[in-house]
Amino acid sequence: MESQINGVASPSSADPSPPTTLTTTNPQNPINRATNPMQSWWEAVSRARSRIHSLSSIVPFGDDAIAPLADSDCPARSLLGNPSATSAISSAFRLPSSGSGDDALCQWIYETYLSTDADLRLVVLSFVPLISGLYLSRVVSAAASPSLAGFESVLLALYNAEARSRSGKPVLVSVPDLSYPSLYHSPPSSKSSRPPSMNEWKPSIGVLSPPLEPQIGVKSTKRACVVAVALDCFYKKISLMPVTSKLDLCEFASVWAGQNCPCRTDLDEDDDEVGFVSEEMGKLRVCEEKCGSGSGSRIPFPWELMQPVLRILGHCLLAPLNPQEVRDAASAAVRCMYARALHDLMPQAILATRSLIQLDRRARSASAIVLANVSSNPNTPSKQRKPDVLLASK
After folding, report:
1. Quick one: pLDDT band at residue 297, thresholds 50, 70, 90?
2. For the whole model, what pTM was predicted?
3. 119 near 76, Cβ under 8 Å?
């Protein structure tokens, strides 16, 4: 006679077969989820769809612009790059009543960033320039709302997450000493003129960012640091950010600088002997007027806040895949910040903005020369060439 205890079959003495253990699969076991990629993918999609449905109920007209995105295979990615959804969310953020402690949209952004879904966190990061711009502009404005706790909670979530990831350590950079020759230089002829050996070389260490201390609130003395860390988090993922996020940053950078004096075009009047860039500079002046008329206010602009802004503007200005609209907006913003640096007597900012302006001028001059040569060559075909299609081998 056989008996079963706890799912284990115990054979009788007459049955020579070995015992058989009956096992069951627990769907809640994390080991099973780790070994089943399809189940993990479906759980991520379900979480993203749930978050998108909740967002569509918060944002005005979200049922038409946001809710249909939940039916895609990658809901978070669809939300990140959808212009209609981005426009609806941006319009909700720009309402005068937004940013308060009971703002449902800020609560959604805060909870979404604390989730473990990487794509949903990218959606949150895409609105960091807009949230930072509205927050800083309203803080210094006389007609600011009495409470901006919603914006501050989002910025603090980004700041504290970055502080935990750094573990109380600063961000350092090793600057090489240019007085020492490289390994490819020929050795000096005399021993007396020989520089110290490479073992004696000590790198120069620069501090990009000091250690971060966790914060429970946004104090006036820590406001620039908190926003700077949030913008730095945006910069780390800037290659995945949509165009609208970059344009928002360029717009607010121009408004934050608040300098529309003629000195912002001083560098554009130098070395313009050929005249290839005159038309481009005219377009930039129109873009400057457009950016300067945006919503926002002139703010205190310390160096710790200006650093991440300049990094983002450098990407918008020089990255090859950025559209011309982003480059023009970044060019206008850099010139406004150059004028602000001149007025505030900030040597680091003057050097950085001046370098970006010169790089922008050289790039525009080179592109203008190429276009002039192409238009003057009669053998150049007028029909646009179709893009090359690379076929991957199966």
Report:
1. confident
2. 0.76
3. yes
